[in-house]
């Protein structure tokens, strides 16, 4: 409760700063808020600002501002043209101007923006080829030590490809060492990180209890036990790290953890004949499982109980249960073709 009270006060102060900042400073603040993992507090404000800013390019904007605006807009689904970077190319248009090489902040922003390119955007392909060697050569010698760290990190793992929670932790550390940083922003980032981390621990505790009670790893000793790994995977999927997606993390972890067991069953345990019978029984959703190998019966019981629980939870939350019938029919068919190919057969072509 004490943490939540502090968070609400800090949110109010930062929201005021966000609404009153100058244009370019607003973009920097939005980028910071997203990088340190507090953007879920300001989703409406950010969408409103970026919606108003989608065509707000000025002729005197520097490379950092242009690239940052481009990246933020694309991250939020805006189809902004990459032609805006043509102004930073030579008059002949065949390469980027050498004068931008000394602008490390701008180069880094261009490098990160280029990773949101789509097929056929040659100017952004060229941007990666141009910025990467210059950043590698100059980054270590940058006067700003935090900029040097950011460059080294981006070259190893570009922002677009990073796992959000790992990126948040890295940038909280970097921001704390940045000269002139905003203590309110830093404090909100640390408090929010701890609150969300506590939520993850509670969720994982509930899932661990379910997994222990299911006792599937002991009953199928050939299969991998991947509960924690799968939950970590869920956190790393797009926006699923945000607190409001607790149900999505829970459902994904249950389905995928059991999915790992029947993956191993198809890959390393059952014969083709056993798996054909097993798949047919699942398509029928035949709870009797007559004539099915004993360990496969155990897996099917785990599948049905989890799908029934998820069906109940999603129906309670949303009023309907999405893709319920398809989920049942597709649950094993994805594994049969791989195993069948090993046996030179062609099976399960109905999906």
UniProtKB/TrEMBL annotation:
Its required cofactor(s), as named, are: Mg(2+)
Name the UniProt key words of this record, in alphabetical order: Lyase, Magnesium, Metal-binding
The UniProt record lists the Terpene synthase metal-binding domain at 213-317
Biological process per Gene Ontology, one example term: terpenoid biosynthetic process
User: One GO MF term, please?
Assistant: terpene synthase activity
Instruction: Tell me the InterPro entries matching this sequence.
Output: Isoprenoid_synthase_dom_sf, Terpene_synth_N, Terpene_synth_N_sf, Terpene_synthase-like, Terpene_synthase_metal-bd, Terpenoid_cyclase/PrenylTrfase
SUPFAM superfamilies, per this entry? Terpenoid cyclases/Protein prenyltransferases, Terpenoid synthases
Q: Where are its TM segments located?
A: none
What Pfam families does this protein map onto?
Terpene_synth (PF01397), Terpene_synth_C (PF03936)
Q: What region holds the Terpene synthase N-terminal domain? A: 4-155
Top-level lineage group: Eukaryota
Q: What is this protein called?
A: Uncharacterized protein
């Amino acid at each position: 409760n004490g943490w939540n009270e502090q968070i609400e006060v800090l949110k109010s102060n930062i929201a005021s700063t966000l609404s009153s900042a100058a244009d370019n400073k607003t973009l920097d603040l939005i980028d910071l808020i997203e990088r340190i993992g507090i953007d879920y507090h300001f989703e409406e404000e950010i969408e409103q600002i970026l919606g108003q800013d989608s065509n707000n390019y000025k002729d005197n904007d520097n490379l950092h501002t242009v690239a940052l605006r481009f990246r933020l807009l694309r991250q939020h689904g805006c189809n902004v043209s990459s032609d805006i970077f043509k102004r930073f190319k030579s008059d002949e248009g065949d390469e980027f101007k050498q004068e931008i090489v000394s602008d490390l902040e701008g180069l880094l922003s261009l490098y990160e923006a280029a990773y949101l390119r789509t097929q056929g955007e040659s100017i952004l392909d060229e941007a990666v080829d141009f910025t990467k060697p210059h950043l590698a050569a100059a980054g270590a010698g940058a006067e700003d030590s935090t900029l040097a760290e950011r460059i080294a990190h981006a070259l190893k793992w570009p922002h677009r490809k990073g796992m959000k929670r790992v990126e948040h932790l890295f940038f909280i550390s970097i921001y704390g060492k940045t000269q002139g940083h905003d203590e309110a922003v830093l404090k909100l980032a640390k408090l929010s990180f701890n609150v969300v981390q506590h939520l993850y621990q509670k969720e994982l505790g509930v899932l661990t209890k379910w997994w222990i009670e299911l006792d599937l790893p002991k009953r199928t000793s050939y299969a991998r036990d991947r509960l924690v790994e799968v939950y970590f995977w869920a956190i790393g999927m797009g926006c699923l790290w945000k607190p409001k997606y607790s149900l999505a993390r829970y459902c994904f972890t249950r389905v995928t953890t059991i999915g790992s067991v029947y993956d191993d069953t198809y890959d390393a345990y059952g014969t083709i004949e056993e798996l054909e019978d097993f798949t047919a029984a699942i398509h029928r959703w035949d709870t009797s499982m007559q004539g099915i190998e004993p360990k496969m019966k155990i897996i099917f019981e785990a599948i049905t109980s989890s799908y029934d629980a998820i069906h109940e939870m999603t129906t309670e939350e949303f009023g309907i249960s999405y893709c319920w019938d398809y989920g049942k029919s597709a649950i094993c068919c994805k594994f049969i073709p791989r195993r069948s190919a090993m046996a030179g057969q062609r099976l399960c072509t109905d999906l």
